[in-house]
Amino acid sequence: MLGKSMTYMESDESDAEKTGHPIHLGGIGCFGDRLKAVMGNVGARAFARACGLSEGAIRSYLSGETFPTLDRLAQIAHATKADPIWLAFGGRDKTSEDDYAYVPLYDARCSAGSGAWNERSRVLVNLSFTRYSLRKKGLTPSDLACLRVDGDSMLGLLDDGDTVMIDLSRNALEGEGVYVVMLDDHLYAKRLQRDFDGSVRVISHNKEYQPITVPRDRLAELQIIGRVVWAGGWMV
């Protein structure tokens, strides 16, 4: 399973009941117009999932019925090319291309049945990360991709619906860690651990799932897609 982006936990909680809203936008529709601009041609449902919010919340923001709280504004800004100050208040360029790198979020999901990490996967949206934060972790933007977790086998570490970022250049077992792998035509986010006999243990964080051992002579069947480096926080 995959992991948490910015605390990308979907929520249906309405902002309408919150008082003392921190964003003063000066008129209904202003924020909605800027939100439409950063959404482009992406539908409300897909955009909401990419941001970790409910479709209802996004539609409410678009219509001007409610405005996002600061944490939700941060989620939207983080999942788009938007500068959060511009997104909230307008009056300045919405992007700073020199400061941000954009990592594609694919529609492939871990543990989603017939795994789809190939040319059939499509990009739902690009998630923005500061180039400084990536560079600090030794990551190259072109080597990165984001996927969403499906299921509960990594519950407690990565929850259902979480978004994780993987480093595609780290596609060999370099030590114990969480990797996205393909095994028996299924995608999984699992902890990998090499045993003394050369076999590899595929471990779920949820103790209700038993570890899978891939013998040394069958390691070719275990395809490592990349190492999970971010899930709402750096994992390396």
List keywords for this structure.
alpha+beta; nine-stranded mixed β-sheet; elongated; 236 residues; single chain
Poorly predicted ranges? 1-29, 112-116
Q: What does the overall shape look like?
A: elongated
- Strand-residue proportion: 25-35%
User: Mind summarizing the main beta sheet?
Assistant: 9 strands, mixed
Total number of β-strand segments? 9
Query: Radius of gyration in whole Å, from Cα?
Result: 19 Å
Estimated structural class:
alpha+beta
Along the chain, the helix and strand elements come as: HHHHHEEHEEEEEEE
Helix content: 10-25%
Q: How many helical stretches?
A: 6
Query: What strand order characterises the main sheet?
Result: 2-1-3-4-9-5-6-7-8
Structural overview:
The structure is a single chain. This protein is of the alpha+beta class and 236 residues long. 20% of the residues lie in helices and 25% in strands. It has 6 helices and 9 strands. It has a 9-stranded mixed beta sheet. The longest helix has 10 residues, at 30-39. It is elongated, with a radius of gyration of 19 Å.
How are the elements arranged and paired?
Elements (H helix, E strand, L loop, with lengths): L29 H10 L4 H8 L3 H9 L6 H9 L5 H6 L10 E10 L13 E8 H6 L7 E5 L14 E5 L9 E7 L2 E9 L5 E4 L8 E3 L8 E8 L6
Parallel strand pairs: 1-3
Antiparallel strand pairs: 1-2, 3-4, 4-9, 5-6, 5-9, 6-7, 7-8
Helix pairs in contact: 2-3
